Amino acid sequence: xAEEKPADGxxxxxxxxxxxxxxxxxxxxxxLGGKDNYEPDREAAEQAIAxxxxxxxxxxxxxxxxxxxxxxLAAERGVRQxxxxxxxxxxxxxxxxxxxxxxxxxxxVYVDNDPVxxxxxxxxxxxxxxxATSYIDADIRDTAAILDAARQILDFDxxxxxxxxxxxxxxxxxSDPYGVVRxxxxxxxxxxxxxxxxxxxxxxxxxxxxxxxRLNEAMAQTITLRSHDQVAxxxxxxxxxxxxxxxxxxxxxxxxxxxxTPSTMWSGVALKP
Length: 273
Hints:
Layout: H1 24-31, H2 39-51, H3 55-76, E1 81-85, H4 95-102, E2 107-112, H5 115-118, H6 121-124, E3 132-137, H7 143-150, E4 161-165, H8 177-187, E5 193-199, H9 205-218, H10 228-232, E6 239-240, E7 246-247, E8 265-271
Parallel strand pairs: 1-2, 1-4, 2-3, 4-5
Antiparallel strand pairs: 5-8, 6-8, 7-8
Helix pairs in contact: 1-2, 2-9, 3-4
């Protein structure tokens, strides 16, 4: 198995983190059926489920969207480079696993500033002998640091898929989330792609608002829900791949019956002309 050092050159040593306060990475891990979570995480996760009973199905449909999007980009569009920002705790069908299964020479850079994820970074730093994987410890808002480090692994003269799966809701409006995405898109060449998934204000609106309020009370991170039009604005100037910006299970489902399963996430893939 090929292994790379983190792109910032440091070692992915496990940091200390506070297990007495709920953390979104561990909450997500609980929803996905993982074991890397603690009682405060489980309590917050169950509070969210109480407000939005479709939460677990929605989260798992978002994870399935990630796998389908990566497979589509690697197998059908010939993308060999992936910049996955907001990695989360490793689980099944991580980006490098899906990409390198379709194209063993794929190169994948993960980005997260979450100490919980950093503690698991070594699980992400594996890959095929002909490909590469790396991990950057950085906040999504620090685009200069991300791009500088990613250039150590990725060739910015060739297409790159920027994966923004369930991450932009943690960038509040006052931190210029659209500027963050625009900077990333401007840095990659024509023929690159952006894949995005974002929780909605306009799907099960009251339940979603209640869910967000409960999570925002329980954890240090803050969630900002956005409408279809607001999520679509992240992709301004790009060409949406069919079927466009839709609920996660509606995006090229492996089985048409899955398209009607629960989701509160707007999801799509777009090409940089």
